[in-house]
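=== Structure Prediction Worksheet ===
Name of assembly: unnamed complex
Input type: mixed (protein and possibly other molecules)
Chain count: two
Listed entries:
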Amino acid sequence: MRVVVADDSALLREGVQLILSDAGHQVVAGVGDGTALVEAALRERPDLVITDVRMPPSGADEGLRAAVQIREEWPAAPILVLSQYVVEAYADELLAAGTGGIGYLLKDRVGDIDEFLAAVDSVAGGGTVLDPQVIGQLMTRRRDPLQSLTPREREVLSLMAQGMSNAAIAQRLVVTSGAVEKHTQRIFAKLNLSPDDTAGHRRVLAVLAFLRG
Amino acid sequence: MAYSMVMSDESVTTPGPAGRSGRGLLPGLLQQTLNCSLYLLIAWPFQLAVFIVNVTLISTAFSILLAPLAIPLSIAVAAGAAAVERRMVGKYVGLDAPPARRLARAPQEPWTDYAVRVVKSPAVWLEVAWSLVAWVVSTITWVLTITWWSIAFAGITWPVYGWMIHGRNGNQDLSDLMGMHSFGAAVILNVGVGLIFLVTMPLVIIGMARGQGLISTALLGRAQQEARIAELTQAREAARQAESAQLSRLERDIHDGPQQRLVRLKMDLARMERQVGEDSHAILGLRAAIASTQETLDELRALSKGIAPPVLADRGLLAAVREAAGRATIPVTVEADLGAVILPPHLEQAAYFVVSEALTNVAKHSGARSGLVSLQVVGAELSVSVTDDGQGGAHASKGSGIVGLQNRVRSVGGTLTLESPVGGPTTLLAVFPLT
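=== Predicted Assembly ===
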């Protein structure tokens, strides 16, 4: 797929680019600040935009602002935000902007290459991928309604919120897809989530909406 | 520091009070009397002149057009006169009156800011007040000084000139009025009165000079203290700003430097791991290297969160506190009522530090099941409290980091109280002044 990568550190831009090209993806533009990112994303209309948060010119949450700005012009833009730190508030802002695939991961996760590439595919396909740290924070906050879940169900819920399919969850937990399916049904029942929301991206959004309260 | 150096230099070079140099009691007393007389005699014309100049300037200032010229001039005259008065009081009367430190303009400070700072300084107006009222006291002391010297001098020297006026042309002097008409009696009476004035002179003159000097130093010394307080306040403010800027820079340097390099290192190691394949003997070493890189990254991240988390700079205190609450292992509710107040960065950092340390303590020691963080601006104060429903019994001396927290809070002018009865609940409350 065609990817635009934004990071003010050439070192990291190059690192991400190498991993993507190893996997057969093509980086069509590499930029170092927010303004250039908005311009490149709207010009190239790539299959995925990968951006850092902290970039010039403001040196603050430049990547986030650029993401929101891109989405104003192109609401379905698939954007994967990579950052040195994950902030729950930023996840909320990203999820609130636009309709396309969205991802928000710690930069370290790029080093878990298989998971990173799965996230790349998922976001480019319109899915939602949130860092386990963000999910952990959300689950701490919504602890009371989650008390009724068994530890295994909580684990499944956490992976679901990160954007994983039942098959991926089954692989991760080394169980059958059928077992995961049973867990998810029980989770939806216990948390009063609509069983209609059991497919793909909508399922993730429903879980996230629940966690964010 | 620089200020106290200047002060101590000053006290070394200021000549000691005249007449205390151990030349015997009488010459010492004489010297002191002469010095004080000199002071009292100069003080009145001097202070009157200052009064006349300054009262004129201040009247002029009521005209809006002339005020920009008259007020600074008036302040300058008062400051100059006060400096002279301090020197005189120190030199002639022997009172401790070190020179005041002027409000200096900072290198890049705009003139308007400097003017506001000068006009707002109580020290400046105390000097102006002194320049307007000092002459009242010195008028009285000046008259008494002249009187004492005149009577003492005229009385003692009466035998030298008294014969020329005694009993002539119906001249009546003091002895005549008392019914003593002989020349001898007049000599005794006049010289006697002169001696009384001469003997009481040191007491009266030195007393008056000291009294008047004390009034001046009370007003001007106060001015000096105010100036020093203003300066220290400003220095502390500058230090706080420098510290908070330095913390942010440190965090940024960690972010831009080692953190980036470690992330890249992990990426490169991960690519290598894929390239060498499962059956290579290097794979275990590579995996260990990746794990250790990740641990270093985690440690570094925890470190920079404790310094100045970026979300604090990007989204403010409330967002950063919510984030810290979200990271806690137990559910923590955040309540906030900050109004429209914009908090200065050093306060945000200190308040955030209190919350994040308190939540760490809650997780480590309290055994609590839930927590509550409250941020409130009431009047000119920011209060930050962290409450948990744990077992209580927390104490500042139990190595819970409360002492370090207390110092941090105190460094920005705040207070920290810990309430933790055995059985709970525990409340840590920090109150920061907003100004």
